[in-house]
From TrEMBL:
Pfam families: Y_phosphatase (PF00102)
SUPFAM superfamilies: (Phosphotyrosine protein) phosphatases II
Superkingdom to which the source organism belongs: Eukaryota
GO biological process: regulation of secretion
Molecular function via GO: protein tyrosine phosphatase activity
Signal peptide (from-to): none
InterPro entries tied to this protein: IA-2/IA-2_beta, Prot-tyrosine_phosphatase-like, PTP_cat
Protein name (database record): Tyrosine-protein phosphatase domain-containing protein
Organism, as annotated: Rhodnius prolixus
Gene Ontology, cellular component aspect: secretory granule; synapse
Length: 57
């Protein structure tokens, strides 16, 4: 969801609100500290990879 928003040009992403939405849709999703850390790490890694392939301005 975060990456789709980025692809559509979103300049700011609210990770906490996104996770809250996921929790509303799927009970038990991202329930532990370790799961939350994994999600943040995965999103950060993907954002870094996307930034590397963007044209430099």
């Amino acid at each position: 969801m975060v990456l789709n928003r980025m692809a559509k040009g979103a300049k700011e992403i609210d990770i906490a609100a996104t996770l809250e939405h996921v929790r509303d849709q799927r009970a038990g999703a991202v329930a532990t500290k370790q799961q939350f850390q994994f999600v943040l790490s995965a999103v950060a890694d993907e954002v870094q990879a996307l930034l590397k392939v963007l044209p430099q301005q």
